[in-house]
Every structure is written in C-alpha cells, then in structure tokens.
Amino acid sequence: MTHQIAFISALIITIGIFSWTMARVFSYMKFTRPYKIRQWPARFGLMMKVAIGQTKIFRFPILGFLHALVFWGFCVILVGSLEMVIDGVAGTDRVLSFLGPVYNILMALGDISAIVIAFAIIVFLIRRWFLNVKRFSGIEMKHKSHTDASIALLMILFLMISLLGINTFYVAGSGWVYEGVFPVSAVIAPVFKSMSVETTHLLYEICWWSHILLIFVFVNTLPYSKHFHVFMSVPNVFLSRLEPLGKLTTMENITREIKLMMNPETAFAAPTEEQTEVCCFGVKDVEDVTWKNYLDSLACTECGRCTSVCPANITGKKLSPRKVMIDLRARMKEKGPGLVKNGRTYNDQKSLVRDYMSTEELWACTTCNACAMECPININHPSLIVDMRRFLVMEESAAPAELNTIFSNIENNGAPWQFSPEDRILWTEELFMNPKTKA
Amino acid sequence: MMEKVKVQVPVMAEVSASGKMPEYLWWVGSAGAFDDRYKKVSREFAKILTYLGTNYAILGAEETSSGDAARRAGNEMLFQMQALTIISILEEYKVKKIITCDPHVFNTFKNEYPDLDGKYEIIHHSQFLEENIKKGKLTLNAGIFGGKRVTYHDPCYLGRANSIYEPARNVIRATGATLVEMGRSHSSALCCGAGGGQMFKEAEKGDKEVFLERTEDALLTNPEYIITACPYCMVMMTDGLKYKNREEEIFNLDIAELVSRALEL
C-alpha cells in the first residue's frame, strides 16, 4: 500500500509538471498564423512511412540505422513502461502477463532492445564526446545544446541499464519460474545465482524504482531540451506539408489586392471577416509564422542534417537552416510569455528578423530544398526563409540592390534583364537545320 | 550534303489569327529568349520540335517573366502580378499543354499557378524528349555519343522540388553514352548555386562559390560531357568549367542539345 501511495504521488507530480509545461509551450500557438490541415488519410500513410518507418533518417545509412533501432526499441519498451505504471498504481505484478505468447514476445523484444539501445547510445556518446563531427558544430550550436544532448543520452543509457537490471534480478530471484522471455537477462542472471533471494528482490526493487522515476524525470526534462523531439517528431511528420517541395505558399491577401486593382468593381463588395483582418506581409517576428512553423521549431532535434547539405553553408556562408529553427524556438521562448501576459500588441523592441536572423543569412538561400529533403521529420526551412524575405522586400523594400534591379526590369520589360519584349523572338532568326524526315 | 532548311518557329498570335489551335504552348522563358548560351538551347529544341512535326507555338513578344525569381526573392506582389497577367493571356489562347526547358518555370506553372486558377498540363523538355524516344519517334545516332563518359547534374527544381530524376537520365542512356553519377546525385544533388534569386546577385561572403563546389563534383567523375536541363544550371556549370580551365576538353550541354546532336540536326 505504501508502494502504491508513493507511486501514485510521483505519477501525479510528473503529470502535473508535464501538463503545465505543455500548456505553456502550446499557449504561444494562439498568437501564430493559421495552417490548414487537409487529406487526413494521406497524412496517416506519411506518418507510418517517415515517422514509424524512419525512412528519411536512413539517408545517412549507418547512423540512421542505429537511430531507427533506438526508435523501434523505444516503441517496444513503451509497452513494458505502461505495464509498470499500471502495476505501480494498481499494486499488481506484471499485469499484462495474461497476454501469454504476445507478452513473451514483447518482453523478449524489450529485453533485446535494451541492450541494443544501450550500445547505440554508447556509440552516440563516443561520437559526441571524442570524435570531431562537423555536424555537431556551427555558430548556432551553443554549449546548452551539447549539454542537453549528453544529459538525454546518459538518461537513456541509465534507463536501459536499469531495465536490464529489472529483468535480470527478476529472473535471478524467481527460482527460474517466471512470466515472459528474457533472452539477454536470462544469460546475465546466472552470474547472481549465489546471491540470496532477499538481495535479488532488493536489487530488483531498486532497479524498478530507478527505472520508473528516471522515466518521470526524463519526461519532464525533454520539453526543455532539443530532445523534445521524442514527443514532437511523430506529430510533426503527421502534420507536415504534403505539397511538392518546390511549392511556396500563395499569399491570399496579395491576390485580393491585385484582383482589386485589376477589377475595381469588387472594391464595392462588402469585405468578409477574413479580409478585414489586419496583417503585414511576410514574417518579421514569431506572431507572423504559422503554428506549424513553430511546431517545426519545437520538434527540431538540432541533428544538423539540413545544415550539412546546405550549399550556402557548405561554401562558408553564414546561413544554417538548423539555426532558423533554433532561432524561431528561442525567440518564441523569449517573446511568448510577454504575448500571453500583454496580448497580441506586446512589443519588446526586438524581432526574429534582424535580432536573430540576419539579412545576410536570409539572402544566402538558393531555395534548393536540400535541407527540407534531408530533414528526418519533414521540417520545411525554405518556405520560412522566403516568408522572411517577403517581409524584407514588401514591408521594408530592403532587398539587395541587384534584386531590386531585376524587380524593376520584370515590372518594366517583363524579364529579369533589360531587354525589350519585342526582342524575345530574336533567337528564332536565321535558324536552319538538316532536312530529315522522321524515321 | 543536303542543303539546310529554314526552321520556322510559330508564334501564337499568328497561329491563332489563322484560326488554328496549337497542341502545345512552348514557354521559352526569359533565359531561353535572352541568355546567349541558353538561346542556343532554344534553337536546338526548336529543331527537335520541327523534326517531330510537333504542333506548337511560342508566345514571342507576348511572353513575360513567369515571376518565379521574383517570388523566391521575396517579391510576392510582383510574382502574382506576372502570374495573373500570364494566366489571362493563356486563357485567351485556351492553352492546355505547356512545354518548357526551364525547371523553375515548370515548377511554378505546375505547383503555384493552380492557386491562382491557372491550371495546365505542364511538361519539362526532358520528359518530352524521353517520351518521344520511348515512342520511337526520335532515332538517335549511337555513333555520336556512344561510349562517351557523361555525367548529369540534377536541377533542384526538377529533382527535389518535383521528384523528376529519371527522364534526363533515360535520354542520356538512349544516346548510347555511359552515364556516370556524381557522388551527390538525385535527391542528394548539390545545387548549382543560382536558385532563389542568386543568379542575379553576388553571393554572400563565404569561402567558396557554390558553382565551383558543384563543378568539382562533376569533374570527379572524369566526364567528357556534363549534361544539364536548366538554364541557371547551364550558366553555373559553364562558368565552373571556365574557372577550372577545362572548357576546352569538357563540354556542358543541355539535354536538348545532346538529343539534337545525336539526331544530327
């Protein structure tokens, strides 16, 4: 009974803190712009493929495979964790064992996953601590990012060790009659066969409590680190853009303005509610992004695959697609509380553009979409970069001089270069070919 | 040697005035009409269309910028003005099918104009050439490119933007050439550096030009020809070869030039 009371109290505290964090993080979303979700069945397929199937992470084959093993292992172990929670609350012991053969398979897979994940995490830690991986550095990679990564990886490692401990001492203390199948722990268990039953039970209890309490701590540290992706990746993939990467969003407020110019009669039509909405062009600050852009920034793991394939970054320019996501999240964290407190009009004399993202970075993008193609969780950086350019061009007329030249050429003579439209057929003159009849 | 014949490029206004309705509109694009290097590509593609007897026309003086570069440079207002103007011109001529040699034009017509009610069937010339080869309408002389080492640079706006990787490759294979892939190819291909308005401005400060990085990728395959399928990529790769002093021995051709040469037009 004391066990149950202790467990339930810990669980309530965990859920309480977690709910408070999530409510705060998501409360900022009401200040962002809309993003329409359509085609639900297609999204489900995409989620199964990209999130559950981990297809995009395999673009980096070796590390991708290790990550996929960790992810799939987590999914299996999650069932065991759920059982632990039920056992903890209800005071039962291995409540899911009634599943019989299914339970055996789940336990066996979980047991194997634990050691596989522990191995993968050790590889990740070695890469992070001892190898000079270019992807882990960059102007946007602050000390906190590395600390966060080390903390999260170590926690996962201890979760796996404690899980193996639970299984091992369960087997060792059972007198070899137990529920489930544990291919790894059953091999380790005989090491402890000289130990008394009381000691194995005590060690079992210690591992059990360490494991579950560590999960509770883990759950509440993730939202404060880049490892929030553990929760956000799957939803982010589910909600991702379904259009081809080449498509940019059409600004409907501009379409309305142009149609008004072309056909002034519509000016007398009563404006709909949507039309009266006050808005500026493009993205200047966090209120101008869509809630999906913000979700992207929360889901970003800072893995840097985007930056490692960015042509601008590869050739030494300041632009780093990863930084766009880190900046957006940091800026929302900075301005969000003020927005909640003082409302939409809150102004702290700063903005995402310029105070976080410099114009130099924004103008270096070739919109090649390599970053978006590479992102394992379908974050779309180029559309946000163009949205920020839209602000610079249409609100501030702050494009580089050469681009202003092509704008005026396109306006005046319909081409980026200064040629007359009449000259568009000059290339057809004096054109001769060998006479050939079709074969 | 037979005497050469003059190629007539039909212009939409004239064709339409005579009461005819071409099957395709060929969107030449600003680069195809004005860029000295890409004008040559337009000329070769015109020969191929003539050879095939394709029922097509160009807009000529009525054509104007698709607005793609303006849009990616952040000028949504200018993009939409261009797009809405073009859509009303195309409506007048009841255009249904469009061919273009420019992946950027292809992308904006295919994915972006529909939002403004401009809906067309849009075909990139690499797809058009592949289709006609498949149908047996283009008989390529294998003696010209047979066995030559050829590498293909994927334009971002065909590849990643629209998942079109194979048509140009199939065309290259049909010439009998040996296709050698670069380390970074298909969806992992490196950009030539010209997209998103970069074509028209100096690059930001860095330690290298993107087009050199990409040219080096291509040179590593030890090619005799670098094939591109985009006017921007052509400018960049040609510059890269010049910069590396390799333009005398390695040739940068558009997929249309490759086919036209293999047809001995």
Task: Report the portion of residues of chain A in β strands.
Answer: under 5%
Binned, the helix content of chain A reads 55-70%
Instruction: Output the structural class of chain B.
Output: alpha/beta
Low-confidence parts of chain A: none
Main sheet of chain A, how many strands, which sense, barrel?
A: none
Q: Please provide the count of β strands of chain A.
A: 1
Written overview of the protein:
- The complex is a heterodimer of chains A (about 450) and B (about 260).
- Chain A is mostly helical.
- Chain A folds into two domains: about 40-240, no CATH class; about 250-415, Fumarate Reductase Iron-sulfur Protein, Chain B, domain 2 (Orthogonal Bundle), CATH 1.10.1060.
- Helix content of chain A is about 60%, strand content about 0%.
- In chain A, helix 14 packs across helix 18.
- The longest helix of chain A is centred in the first third of the chain and has 30 residues, at about 60-90.
- Chain A is elongated, with a radius of gyration of 28 Å.
- The mean pLDDT of chain A is about 95.
- With about 260 residues, chain B is an alpha/beta fold.
- Chain B is built from 13 helices and nine strands.
- Chain B is globular, with a radius of gyration of 18 Å.
- Chain B has two domains: about 10-130, Rossmann fold; about 140-260, Rossmann fold (3-Layer(aba) Sandwich).
- The relative contact order of chain B is 0.14.
- The chains are: A mainly alpha (about 450), B alpha/beta (about 260).
Helices and strands, with pairings:
The complex is a heterodimer of chains A (439) and B (265).
Chain A: H1 2-27, H2 40-52, H3 61-90, H4 101-130, H5 143-172, H6 185-188, H7 197-221, H8 229-238, H9 252-262, H10 273-276, H11 291-299, H12 305-309, H13 311-314, H14 321-342, H15 352-356, H16 359-363, H17 370-374, H18 381-395, H19 401-413, E1 432-433
Helix pairs in contact in A: 1-3, 1-7, 2-8, 3-4, 4-5, 5-7, 8-11, 11-14, 14-18
Chain B: E1 5-6, H1 12-17, E2 24-27, H2 29-34, H3 36-52, E3 56-58, H4 68-72, H5 76-92, E4 97-100, H6 103-112, E5 121-124, H7 125-134, H8 142-145, E6 149-152, H9 159-162, H10 166-174, E7 178-179, H11 210-219, E8 225-228, H12 231-243, E9 251-254, H13 255-262
